[in-house]
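hi!! sorry for the late reply, been swamped w classes. u asked for the two structures so here they r. pasted raw, havent cleaned anything up. first the sequence of the first protein and right below it the tokens
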Amino acid sequence: MIQKPYTKISVPIEINGEVRQVDFRPADTLLSVLRNQLSLTGPKLGCLNGDCGACSVIVNDTVYKSCIMLAIEAIDAKITTIEGLHDTPIQKAFVKHFAFQCGYCTPGFIMNCHALLQKYPQPTYDVIKEWLSSNICRCTCYQEIEEAVLDVIENRE
């Protein structure tokens, strides 16, 4: 039996405030479209099963792991990658508190922390710990990341 290859679809997707035309197969993940078609390499290829969070992006104000989200699910959504954040308080706090080592997981952590602070302007320590548990860093402890989040909370005007 001859299998017919998936036909690509061409749709506009809003990424980082800009509408971009992309062509993808219905089975393509959002991560593969971001990295391979749009050259947005901030979301990292990690576990490919939604465990590590290196590929985290914000879709309509909610954090998603783009390695397990189909690109077709992002049609009519507003997607933000690390490239779409510009001098946010959490980015500055990560630098101030050295909340990274190798940096591979850092974009995912920043996206997760940014979304946390958007949803919960004054999160409890337990909420911060819970949110951070959805991302994995193998190079450092989470203390510096927690300090970065707490710094943003303490220094809000």
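now the second protein. again sequence first, tokens right under
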Amino acid sequence: MMKLKEFNIPFSGLKLGKHNFVYEIDDAFFESFDYQEFNGASVHVNAVLEKMSTMMELQIEAEGTINVDCDLTGEPYDQPVDSHLKLVVKFGEEYNDEDDEILIIPHGEHQFNIAQYVYEMLVLAVPQKRVHPGVEDGTLQSEILDKLEELQPKENTKPSEDTDPRWDDLKKLLTDK
């Protein structure tokens, strides 16, 4: 898998304090991970690295839309995503990213790459069940929805006017008090 170079954060030349990195995520980003679930993406990612003397903290925020297909109708729609991730970066003997919240990089490294973190964060930001907003508010016009509507068993909700004459006399007893 190619490491996306623009997601390298070159911390060694940075002064102590906070530093901002901004990314615009589109389809090409997910294609580089061979991820085919999304039709398109337009996500703004802001990463703030706080460099301290012995460690670093990274706050990643993502906001935008990812175009997916509705599970019910197959219609594509823009799913809003809003997600954030906090990562603590420490130095150690060897590279270790097994912990979701702590990244350990070898002493002497001068940069690290956040593409994988951004990728996982965005994939998890899209709900498992994808439902077109037009399905919920009834505004989506779709052949599939019309067909589903047609095939649904019809419920008879209005009470029938014809009553059984045998009960009519009993009902009179209840009402004639």
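hope this helps!! also noticed smth abt the second:
The first strand starts at residue 8 and ends at 9.
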